[in-house]
Amino acid sequence: MTSQNIYILAIESSCDDTAASVMHNGKILSNIVANQKIHEAYGGVVPELASRAHQQNIVPVVDQALKKAGINKDQLSAIAFTRGPGLMGSLLVGTSFAKSLAYGLNIPLIDVNHMQAHILAHFIDEADFEKPPFPFLAMTISGGHTQIVKVNSYFDMEVIGETIDDAVGEAFDKSGKILGLGYPAGPEIDRRAKLGNPKAYAFTKPKVDGLNFSFSGLKTAILYFVQKQVKANPNFIEEHLNDVCASIQYTIIGILIDKLKLATKQTGIKHIAIGGGVSANSGIRQALKDGEHKFGWTTYVPKFEYTTDNAAMIAIVGHLKYLEGNYADQSVMASARLKI
């Protein structure tokens, strides 16, 4: 990317994963993630527990990232960190640490928008991974977000569709909870969907104008459906779990693909990139690939480790901002509802 020797240390702490990564001239040298298993018992992320765990994890995670990269902190060119959006307590831990470290080392501090980072993860310098050309459409799908973004350049992005209630990841997790699956339920629904019949049960797709999404009605429909079936047959879930999972996944994928079809029609853009934790779902990846033949799309799917929350995606934004001299100062604050 450049002949300079640019080392970026990136820190991500927007939700329940503490992550740190070191990037050298656009290439990832280390990408360390500490997961917080504590939330599984509660069926969802508990913000207070998350911020406490970040405080425990951040120093060892950063230390590991530097060691794995084979550099010391004095070689760093800048510190990049997630400013938002996310859980305020979690963001504060990463923000405070990044500010202190940048101040102590007297190097630039770079604030990163978490949602932009999911999109720009496609530009990490990786062999065999094609980068989307501008302009392209990005669909960011995660536990907290569902958006379609028109990406004109690295930092010229326009949200053209988003969820008006629950995110797609919530739809998976809450459906899983109804079915008695553990948290997070998305990967388990994906696994079981491969074993079931996607057309066994029909769930109505919510009608939402334009490119916006809604998932709360679908979640309610699934709840009522399961309650009705269990009343008639107490063993219904046990006997039909794979088919129910396949039908739920099929419906959710249908909602996403319908909106993408409309977005490509409205914008005339046929290059589609996905990002966010839910883009790890095999059914969604397959539906996008199928869309290449059906609708003439070209699709871009990031490497698996760059889909869920990670610091490598923060590092690439930090690198690109560093090249532009786009730094933050010490007065920068975390922002839980930061917009693209």
Give a quick precis of the structure.
Helices cover 42% and strands 18% of the residues. The chain contains nine helices and ten strands. α4 packs parallel to α6 and α7 packs across α8.
Structure description:
There is one protein chain. This protein is of the alpha/beta class and 340 residues long. It folds into two domains: 135 residues, ATPase, nucleotide binding domain (Nucleotidyltransferase, domain 5, 2-Layer Sandwich); 166 residues, Nucleotidyltransferase, domain 5 (2-Layer Sandwich). Helix content is 42%, strand content 18%. Strands 3-2-1-4-5 form a five-stranded mixed beta sheet, sandwiched between helices. The chain has a five-stranded mixed beta sheet with strand order 8-7-6-9-10, with helices on both faces. Strand 9, helix 8 and strand 10 form a beta-alpha-beta unit. Helix 4 packs parallel to helix 6, helix 4 runs antiparallel to helix 7 and helix 5 packs across helix 7. The two termini are 25 Å apart. The mean pLDDT is 92.
